[in-house]
Design brief:
Elements lengths: L3 E4 L2 E4 L1 E4 L5 H14 L3 E3 L7 H11 L7 E6 L6 H15 L4 E6 L8 H13 L3 E7 L3 H10 L4 E7 L7 H9 L3 E5 L11 H10 L3 H10 L4 E5 L5 H7 L8 H8 L24
Parallel strand pairs: 3-4, 3-10, 4-5, 5-6, 6-7, 7-8, 8-9, 9-10
Antiparallel strand pairs: 1-2
Helix pairs in contact: 1-2, 2-3, 3-4, 7-8
The structure holds NADP nicotinamide-adenine-dinucleotide phosphate.
NADP nicotinamide-adenine-dinucleotide phosphate binds next to strand 10 and helix 9.
Length: 279
């Protein structure tokens, strides 16, 4: 049974299907299977260029719109006021829906005043085009500024989080500000899969390493995990993380895998100064 992370009226399925880097062929092969197996949350973005496939697959799935939670993200080039709403209209059209469940600012962009970005995010929510709003890749200072500037609650900050990256500072700040965390790159681009500590926990639990890592993420208060796979057989595997529990020593052992310098995604020109835990 899929659990939800609830924030300010948003009920976010704790596991989402990630679609970064997936072109039409992969999307049309994988997303129908993901929905069939039970994924009820899809994470996309304007810049992924696959919102149209998300819309097409959800429509063809026969699921009611309300049964699927759609997260998408506005690309940084669309932050100026005159483009923002038009880009969201374009997303709605591609997604074949009249509302987006959760709309995020994809990365910080200091060429547009943050007040303008947050104002535009609030405006599309007020217009009924978006149910909930949030940010992605915002550091603590930006998250605090954004929260202050926003009339409507920000419900999510989506950022990189996996066993090798200590995100204690960000997790605490997000919790204090009332935001849920949406974790991306949980598999640390495959690094976790050959980890001996994770392998031992997986063996003890009779689970795969991927399942243990996804479970570790969603077992933390207020954390939603995103999971991407291009293998159909792995969909059911990755979804089967709601019927077992990691013990406190196992959770702690996974937290202890964090090492400085483990950040994977940090594009120059987009990434803020990260709030990494001190070395
Ligand atoms: N906001 C942002 O800036 C941002 C940045 C990055 C990502 N994201 C979002 O977060 C999502 C998740 O991050 P991610 O794409 O890096 O995905 P991920 O789920 O952390 O890792 C995907 C990798 O793990 C492998 N994998 C998945 N399940 C597996 C399993 N059961 N056994 C073995 N290998 C497995 C996949 O290989 P196979 O395909 O071969 O199974 C793939 O190479 C993205 O798709 C995107 O939606 C957002």
């Amino acid at each position: 049974m899929m659990k939800t992370v609830d924030r300010c009226g948003a009920r976010i399925p704790a596991l989402g299907y990630g679609t970064y880097g997936m072109g039409r062929a992969d999307m049309m092969r994988m997303l129908p299977a993901a929905l069939k197996v039970g994924f009820r949350h899809v994470d996309t973005a304007q810049v992924y260029r696959n919102e149209a496939e998300v819309g097409e697959c959800i429509e063809a799935s026969g699921l009611a719109r309300a049964e699927v939670f759609i997260t998408t993200k506005v690309w940084v080039a669309n932050y100026p006021d005159r483009q923002f709403a038009a880009s969201v209209d374009e997303s709605l059209k591609k997604l074949r829906t009249d509302y987006i469940d959760l709309l995020l600012l994809h990365w910080p962009n200091d060429t547009v005043p943050l007040s303008e970005q947050i104002g535009a995010l609030n405006a599309v929510a007020r217009a009924g085009k978006v149910r909930h709003i949030g940010v992605s890749n915002f550091n603590r200072a930006l998250m605090a500024q954004a929260t202050t500037l926003s009339d409507l609650p920000l419900v999510v900050n989506q950022f990189e989080y996996h066993p090798y990256l200590d995100q204690t500072l960000m997790l605490d700040a997000a919790r204090d500000a009332g935001l849920a965390v949406m974790a991306y790159c949980g598999m640390a681009v495959g690094r976790v899969l050959s980890d001996p500590v994770l392998a031992a926990i997986a063996a003890a639990q009779g689970r795969s390493i991927a399942q243990v890592v996804l479970r570790w993420l969603i077992q933390q208060d207020g954390v939603v995990a995103l999971s991407r796979t291009t293998h159909k057989a792995r969909l059911a595997e990755n979804l089967a993380v709601f019927d077992f529990e990691l013990g406190a020593p196992e959770m702690a052992a996974i937290h202890a895998l964090a090492q400085p310098g483990s950040r994977i995604v940090s594009p120059p020109g987009l990434a803020p100064v990260w709030d990494d835990a001190p070395a």
